[in-house]
Amino acid sequence: MKKRIISTLVTATVALTAFWGGQLTNATVQANEKKYIAVEDIIDWNTDGKELSLALQDDTEAYAYKSQNVYKPERKQFLALDEIADVKATKTGFEIITADGEIYYFDRQEIK
Questions:
Q1: Signal peptide span per the entry (predicted)?
Q2: Are 10 and 59 in a shared domain?
């Protein structure tokens, strides 16, 4: 009878210790409450024009979604490859024609 009581107490102690140990080491998920992301924290980014995905140094990801066009520059600073309809070389340079009919001309410059 004495062995049975000791065995039951040891089993209960082991079970409770394992349960409480599991509760104490349970990983909790916390939302990122920061209002900004420092540029130094960004290790990778991807975009499709509608969504921006940022991978951060602390192994978290942040997503931003485009709600409207707020930036409409007078002159574009780049041409996307899928916008280019044709490229023509001339004697003095070359021109790029986009799908919407815009023509960008580049002068040839001599390398000295």
A1: 1-20
A2: yes
- Amino acid letter, 56: L
- Name the residue with higher pLDDT: 83 or 49: 83
Rg (CA), the chain: 31
Tokens standing for residue 77: 């600073």
Evaluate the CA torsion angle 24, 27, 32, 34 in order and state its sign: positive
Number of domains in the chain: 2
> Which tokens hold the place of 108?
């040839």
pTM: 0.36
6 secondary structure, DSSP code: H
Same domain flag for 61 and 101: no
